[in-house]
Amino acid sequence: MIQILDERTIEVNLPNKIGYERVAMDCAASFAKIVGLVSARIEDLKTAVSEACLNAMEHGNRGRPDARVIVTMNCGDDDFSVSVLDEGEGIRELPKEPDIEKKIEKLEAPNGLGLFLIKQLVDQVEFNEMTKDGHAVRMVIKIT
Length: 144
What we know:
Blueprint: E1 2-6, E2 9-15, H1 21-34, H2 39-60, E3 68-75, E4 79-86, H3 100-104, H4 114-121, E5 124-131, E6 134-142
Antiparallel strand pairs: 1-2, 2-3, 3-4, 4-6, 5-6
Helix pairs in contact: 1-2, 2-4
C-alpha cells in the first residue's frame, strides 16, 4: 500500500516477499524525479532502496511471511531521504568490507554486498536506528 502523507513524504507498506522491493524502488525513483533528483542519482537511489528492502526482508524479518517492510521517503529542502523499517532487532555487527577482487575472481560468494553498495551509493547512511516498531536503515542523497 502506498500512502502520500504530505507533498514531501510518501510511505510504502510492503509484504515481506522478495520481488516487492521493486515497488519501493520504482516509487522512490518516481518521487525523486518529481522533486528534481538528477537521473544518475536516481539510479543510485533505486539500487540502495532495493538492497535495503531485500536486507530487511531476508535478515531483519528473517523471511517471515507475516512481517512487513515500511519504506518512508521524504524530500527535504536539499536532500532526499529514505528509511526502510523492518520488524527485526537491528544489525548486531556491521560486516567487514568485502574483498571485491575475490568476489570478481569467484574466490568468495557473490552475496554480502548489500550494505557495501548502500554505503557507496548514498551520501549518508545510518544503520541500527531502533524505533518502537523495529529496526530502520536511513539513507540520504543530496539534491544538487
